[in-house]
Write a structure and sequence with these properties.
The protein is α/β, with parallel strands linked by helices.
């Protein structure tokens, strides 16, 4: 009893406290007007404010005023908020910050002025910023600043650690542009119009570790000497050449992004480096040693600094061969013009985990025991012109992703995948590669067989064999390989046997049979086995006319039936599927508008999603109609039309008999009347 009384009293006290809390919160919201306060953060975004609110709590530490219509920050606008350390004024119409605007905000560290018009009164803005002694972050992106204005605003902000000048009108950089930024760690200059960077521009930034120059117009990087920078992004420029300074000093560079440029040669990197990620995709690179008679490609660089002219001769071929990247983990050279990789090119990359060479012009690719691939996990050689592989290695211990799709393979070494004990994903799509039966007939065939042996790869989960000109799959093709994803789509004429999926029936979760020309009866043969975990089945772009009962026992969550020849869906099969089905695709079929009971079942199932519902149509007597637009009137017409058709079919024999008798009578009459008619016309002689 005492416990019950105590519980009731505690509940009542909690309700009183909640009521008081709600009243306090309501009064606080009212006192802030268009702002709201959470802890020490004042949220005033998007309130169409024309000035800084003056009635906010004194303890405000973060003030978010972005998305308003403020044009001026006056000297006394922020004087009350002496504890302020973060101020966001982005997306206003800010033109003027008076010189004493931050006199009472000595703790301000983070100032966001993005997307304003600071360029209009930059002289006073500069004076205002110089009063901030704890200033570490400044965002001036999108303010129409040229290099002169930007330089004047940011010069000698000695405490600044992060600076963004992105999306402005900066065209040139020189040493004076960023003078005095001795603590700067990160600089963002992307989306400007920079086409020239004078020598020594960044040398005064001794603490700089991240530099973003993406989306500019930089033509080349010669004499690269940013020893302290760890991350450099020069993507989306027009760089044709990257040449680092010859030095014994160790560069700290870990990530170099040169994607989407016009590089013709592999970059000439620093001698001593810590590079872990080298991104070179979407360029015009190739190796040219096979075009040189003496296996050399010597070029000369002319550098003019003042009145001094320096000429540097570099043998590009020798530089590439001797490349040493012992700490490199990711090398992306996709979407270039590589026809081959020079012998020994990969030998100095001892820590490589990801190698991407897709979408090049490679005609051969070789790995030998001399190539150190102890850590290699991903190889992408897709979309090249490869017709054979030379993998003269005993094992690739850590390889888990291997993509050979869209090449010209007609055969692969049958023992290729047995060298990959941790292979998880294998893509052989768009090659004319056959699949081996297991076991092979004898040891000799193991060495010379041209088919792909895909059995007993205990780590293999995802296998893609789309458009491989497969006609059949051996019964034991996947035995011992616990596949969860299997794509055998676009193999027109593929025959499904009862044993095709027997070995993977328990593990398979995703199966694509798209665009194989399958008819309904072929599904019965291929899906006879018990799929205990199959959740996604793609049957689109086939010739299926009805749902086969074999689908009843599948625990599907997604079923794709697009672009078949279905006129309706069988209610019994559909009823079984709806126990687990969550997504179904149906567009591109010829459904009968007079047989839509199944459609009612679908749309009344609340747990089911039909993503292409707006594209599902049915066929009336005259045209295709959107299936959701079929009215009750149309359903009545279907019944009327069916009744008339039945009566017509019943009367058809009688009508045919009557027509036959009429024709016979007419013929008999015509046989008697025709001679009399001829005599009447021809009885009198003709005059000559």
């Amino acid at each position: 009893m005492e416990l019950t009384v105590l519980s009731i009293s505690l509940i009542l006290r909690a309700l009183v406290m909640l009521d008081r809390g709600s009243n306090v919160e309501a009064s606080l919201v009212r006192s802030l007007g268009s702002c709201r306060m959470v802890d020490t953060v004042s949220f005033c975004q998007g309130g169409r404010l024309h000035h800084v609110p003056v009635d906010l709590p004194v303890e405000t530490e973060e003030l978010l005023l972005n998305g308003n219509e403020i044009k001026t920050i006056k000297n006394r606008s922020l004087s009350t908020y002496w504890r302020l350390h973060t101020l966001n004024l982005s997306g206003n119409q800010l033109e003027l910050i008076e010189s004493g605007a931050f006199n009472h905000n000595r703790n301000l560290k983070d100032l966001n002025l993005k997307n304003n018009r600071i360029d209009l009164n930059y002289l006073e803005t500069h004076l205002a910023l110089r009063t901030l002694t704890a200033f570490t972050r400044l965002d001036l992106s999108g303010n129409r600043l040229n290099e002169v204005v930007a330089s004047y605003i940011v010069q000698n902000l000695t405490t600044l650690e992060y600076l963004s000048l992105a999306r402005n009108f900066i065209m040139r950089l020189e040493p004076s542009t960023l003078e005095g930024l001795v603590q700067l760690r990160e600089l963002n200059l992307e989306n400007n119009y920079i086409f020239e960077i004078e020598s020594g521009t960044f040398e005064g930034l001794r603490s700089l570790t991240r530099l973003n120059l993406a989306h500019n117009h930089i033509p080349c990087i010669v004499d690269f000497s940013l020893y302290q920078v760890k991350t450099l992004n020069i993507s989306h420029n027009v760089v044709e050449l990257f040449l680092a300074r010859e030095s014994e000093i160790e560069f700290q560079l870990e990530t170099l992004d040169l994607t989407h440029n016009k590089l013709l040669f592999f970059p000439l990197l620093p001698k001593h480096k810590k590079l872990k990620m080298l991104l070179l995709s979407d360029n015009e690179m190739s190796f040219y040693g096979d075009l040189m008679n003496d296996s050399s490609a010597e070029i000369h660089f002319i550098q003019i600094v003042g009145n001094v002219t320096n000429i540097t001769s570099v043998n590009l071929w020798d530089e590439v061969i001797s490349v040493s990247l012992p700490e490199l983990q990711v090398l992306d050279m996709s979407r270039n013009s590589f026809r081959y990789l020079p012998h020994g090119f990969l030998r100095g990359i001892t820590s490589l985990s990801t190698l991407q060479l897709n979408q090049n012009c490679l005609k051969n690719f070789s790995l030998t025991e001399e190539d150190p691939f102890l850590f290699l996990q991903t190889i992408d050689l897709s979309q090249n012109q490869l017709s054979h592989l030379n993998f003269n290695v005993s094992k690739l211990e850590k390889l888990n992703y291997f993509n050979l799709s869209f090449n010209k393979f007609e055969s692969v070494p049958s023992d290729l995948f047995t060298k990959m004990p941790r292979l998880v994903t294998m893509d052989l799509s768009h090659n004319n590669v056959s699949v081996c039966d297991y076991p092979l007939e004898n040891e000799k065939r193991t060495l010379n067989a041209s088919c792909a042996a895909l059995a007993h790869i205990k780590s293999l989960k995802r296998l893609y064999l789309s458009n491989c000109a497969l006609v059949t799959l051996p019964a034991n093709a996947f035995v011992g390989s616990p596949l969860t994803h299997l794509d055998i789509s676009s193999n027109t004429g593929l025959r499904l046997e009862a044993s095709t999926f027997q070995a993977v029936a328990k593990s398979l979760q995703f199966l694509s049979l798209k665009k194989n020309g399958l008819a309904s009866n072929q599904l019965d043969t291929g899906l006879q086995v018990t799929f205990s975990n199959l959740m996604t089945l793609d049957l689109s772009e086939n010739s299926i006319t009805s749902l086969h009962p074999a689908l009843k026992n599948l625990p599907l969550k997604l079923l794709d039936l697009r672009k078949n020849q279905l006129s309706s869906l069988q209610q019994d099969v559909l009823h079984s599927l709806l126990h687990s089905l969550r997504v179904i695709f149906l567009s591109g079929n010829t459904f009968d508008c007079c047989q839509l009971n199944w459609w009612t079942s679908l749309i009344n199932t609340k747990t089911l999603i039909i993503p292409d519902r707006s594209e599902v149509t049915c066929n009336t007597s005259f045209k295709l109609e959107h299936i959701d637009s079929i009215s009750q009137y149309t359903k009545i017409n279907c019944k009327v039309d069916n009744t008339v058709l039945k009566y017509f079919l019943l009367l058809l024999p009688t009508i045919l008999c009557i027509l036959t008798i009429c024709v016979m009578v007419l013929l008999s009459l015509s046989s008697k009347l025709l001679p009399k008619y001829v005599k009447a016309k021809c009885g009198s002689g003709a005059e000559y």
